[in-house]
Amino acid sequence: MEETLKSSSLNTRNGKLLTILNSLLPRARTHPPTSFRTFLLRYASHLAIIGLIVFALSLGGVQLPRADDPQLQLPTAAPGLGQRSYTALADRGNLLPAERSTLVRYPVPHTTIPDRLRRGVITYTVQSGDTVTGIAAHFGLKWTTIMWSNEHLEDNPDLLLPGQVLNILPVDGVYHLIREGDTLAKIAKEYEVEVADITDCPFNSVQSDASLRVGEYLIVPGGRKPYVPVVFRPTYTGPFPADAPRGSGQFIWPTQGRLTDPFGYTRNRWHTGIDIANSKGTHVYAADRGYVRQAGWTKMGYGVLVIIDHGNGYWTYYAHLSAVWVYAGQYVEKGQWIGNIGSTGRSTGPHLHFEVRRNNEPINPMDMLPPR
Fold it and tell me: In terms of pTM, does the model score above 0.70?
C-alpha cells in the first residue's frame, strides 16, 4: 500500500514536469530539426537530474526548515559592557591603543627647552614694537639694567630703534667699559658696590687691578648709575612773554591710548616721561595753556617735538609726532590740538612720549595728571 502511494505521488510530479516541457516545445519547433534535437536532449538531461533529486527527497522524508519554525533559536544579545563616558579628543593626552587592553602615550616630536641661567652676556636685536621695559621683562631684568648695558640708551630710552643690537646681562647691574686709570676700588665706588661684588662675580675674570684691561667690559652686579638729566635746547630760548597766557598747573591727558612705558624709578628716573601708544594720526592736545618754545624736528631721538612753556615753572614735551599744528612763539590754550601721534625719531612704534618738567627737571607726569 505504501509503495502504491509513493508511485502515485511520483507520477503526479512527473506529470507537472511534462507539462512544463510541453510548454517549451512550441518554441523549440521554430528551430531547425538538428537544433531541436540538441535542445530536447539538453532539457531532458536536466529534467532527469531534477527528477532524481525529487525522488530521493520523497524517499527520505527530509523536510527543508521554515523560517517560522518554533524550533529555531533566535540569537541572544551580547552581555552588557557598561556605559563609556565620552572624552573630547583634545583631552585624551595623545593616547593611541597598542592593543585592545593597553593604552600607550603617542610620541610627540617636540622639545620644550626649559629656562636656564645665562652664562654670560648675550645680544638681542630690537624688533618693531619693542620697549625697554618689555625687553627687560622678557629676560627677567630691571629696565635700568638694559639702559646701563647700552650706552646709547643711558640718556633716554626713546633712543631705542628697530634693528639695534642690545647687550643683555645675565644679572641686574651695570656693564662697565674699562678705561685708562680705572681701579677696582674706583669702579666699585662709582656704582655703589663692594670690590668683592666685582671680583666674586663668576662672569668676570678679574681678581686684582692688574687683571683690568682697557677696552674690555666688566659686569658690576647690583651696580647703579647716577641720574644725569638731559637738557634740550629748544628753538626759542628767550624769556617768557609778559602777555602770554600762563598755565593753571592743572594738567589734562594729552591724548588717548595705552600706557606702555611708565616714568622711571623714583631714585634713578631714567625714563624722563611716559609713553602712550595709539595709532598714527591720533590727536595730541596741550596739557595746559602756555607758550610754544619748540615745534619741529630734533636730533636727540625725540623726532618731531613740541615743547610748551606754561609760564609757572612747568614745561611739557610731546615727542615722536607725525604732524605739528602749532609753531614756536605761538600761544596755546589747554586742550588745543597741537599735533598727531607718530613714530618719528628713535621710536619702535606709534606713540606719544610725554614729559612734564619742573624747573627743567623731569618729574613723574602721573603725579600731575587726573586719574583715568
Answer: no
Per-residue pLDDT tens digits for 72-131: 555 555 555 555 554 444 444 444 444 444 454 444 444 343 455 677 899 999 988 787
Q: Which domains does the chain have, with CATH numbers?
A: 122-221 (3.10.350.10), 258-367 (2.70.70.10)
Question: What does the chain come to in residues?
Answer: 372
Q: Taking the CA atoms of the chain, what radius of gyration do you get in angstroms?
A: 49
